[in-house]
Amino acid sequence: MKDAVSKVLELSGYKELNPAQKMAIDAGLLEGKNMVVAAPTASGKTLIAEIAALNVIRKNKKVVYIVPLKALATEKHEEFREKYEKLGIKVAVSSGDMDSSDPWLASKDLIIATSEKLDSLMRHGIEWINDVGLVIADEIHLLDSANRGPTLEVTLTRLRQFVNPQIIGLSATISNYEELAEWLGAEAVKSDYRPITLYRGLCFDDAVDFVPQKKMEVNPANPVKSIVSNTLDKGKQILFFVSTRRSTQSTAEKIGVYVSERLHQTEKQQLEEIAQKAEKVLEHPTQQCKRLANCIRKGTAFHHAGLTSKQRKLVEGAFREGCIKVISATPTLAMGMNLPAFRTVVRDLKRFSSFKGMDYLPALEIEQMSGRAGRPKYDEYGEAILIAKNRQEADYAWQNYINGEPEKIYSKLGVEPVLRMHVLSLIASGAVSTRKELFGFFAKTFHAHQYRDMEQLKKNLENVLELLRDFKFIEGASGDAGASPDAGPFKTGLDVMEEGKGNLTATRIGKRVSELYIDPLTAHSLIKRLERVNSEGTTDLGLLHVIADTIEMRPLLNIRKGDIEALNDVMERHADSLVDSPPDEWDMEYDEFLRAIKTAAMLLSWAEESGEEEILQDYGVTPGELRARLERADWLLYSSQELGLLLNYMNAIKGLRKIRVRLRYGVRENLLPLVRLKGIGRVKARVLFHSGIKSLAELKKAPMETVERLVGPKTAKSIKEQVGDESKKAISEY
Question: In the predicted model, what is the mean pLDDT of residues 425-444?
Answer without folding.
Answer: 95
